Every structure is written in C-alpha cells, then in structure tokens.
Amino acid sequence: MKLKKFIGVILAAMLSFALFCSACSTGGEEDPDNDNTVEGEVYTVTLHANGGSNSAYDIEGDIFTVKYRGGNSLSLPKLTKSGSVFAGWYDISDVKWEKISETDTGDKEFWAHWDSNTVAPQTYTVTLHLNEGSFPAGVSNLTQYTAGTEVTLPIPQK
User: Fold this and answer.
1) N or C: which end of the chain has fewer CB within 10 A?
2) Does the CA dihedral 137-143-148-154 come out positive or negative?
C-alpha cells in the first residue's frame, strides 16, 4: 500500500513539473516587435528610398531601416513617388529582391529603383473665363491639357 501511495506522489510530482515546464519560455529571445518568444538573431535591413515614401515607415534623409529575425521571412515594403513607378529593391550587385527568405541571414542593404517611363501622363481639364469676350473665327477653346506637353493659349477678343 505504501508503494502505491509513493508511486502516486511521484507521478503527481512529475505531472506538476511537466505542466510547469510547458508554461515556461522555450529559452528563445523576446521579439521586441510582437512580444512572442522566437529563435534567431536579429538583423537590420537598410533601405535607400531614393525619393520614395511609405506612410508606414519613418524615412529620414531618404534612408530607413527594418529588422528581421533569422529563420523568418520579411516582405520588403513598396514605396510611392510622384511621377514614377516603384520598380523594386536592388542590392549593391544590382540584383532585385522582393523579400528576405527564411534562409537569409545577416544585415542587408537595398536601393529603390524607379521607372519614370511607365507613368501615364496626367490630363487636366481647362476652363477659360473670357469675361464677355469671344474667340476669333477659327480659334477653338482649349478644354484639356496633358502634363509635359506645350500648349499655346488662345487669345480672346472683346
């Protein structure tokens, strides 16, 4: 009887210890961004925006950084720039990167590339107020203007 009681106490102690240990941290470092316990070293990605912006990031002096942890992937952010289309992030060897993969390690540095030839030109509506004047015969009213083109404004008569 004493042996059964002894075994019961030992099993209860082992179960309590196992439950306690399962609630403990696995020994990984604290992730500063989301308070999860994860493994892997933290690395810095330096991004040169080259005039671009993204409201989710604090871009100072055209450069900003993001962090990633080894063993985790990270999609590189998209940027916007007036008059251009974001063509992607390129490293010093001019290789295009879209994300950091789970197998990448180490600090990284990328530069934003822009393609200004793929942006459709902006067209604007033009309204001319003639103040009781009129255009001479054969002169038509200007109603639209396309950015980047030269235009001669018609001269009204009164």
Assistant:
1) N
2) positive
Gap between the Cα atoms of 53 and 64, Å rounded: 10
Q: Which amino acid is at 77?
A: P
**Which residues are within 8 A (CB) of 37 and not within 5 positions of it... i.e. 6 or more apart?**
25, 26, 28, 29, 30, 31
Q: What is the pLDDT of residues 49-96, one digit of tens each?
A: 999 998 888 887 799 999 999 999 999 999 998 888 899 999 999 999
Q: Kindly provide the b/e burial profile for residues 83-97, where b requires at least 16 CB atoms within 10 angstroms of the residue's own CB.
A: ebebebbeeeeeeee
Dihedral angle sign, alpha carbons of residues 63, 53, 114, 46 = positive
Cα→Cα distances 157→122, 141, 146, 154, Å: 30, 13, 25, 10
Look-up: residue for tokens 């933290």?
42
Half-sphere exposure of 106 (CA within 13 A, CB side): 3
Q: Which of 53, 57, 44 is nearest to 112 (CA)?
A: 53
How far from the centroid of its chain's Cα atoms is residue 126's Cα?
36
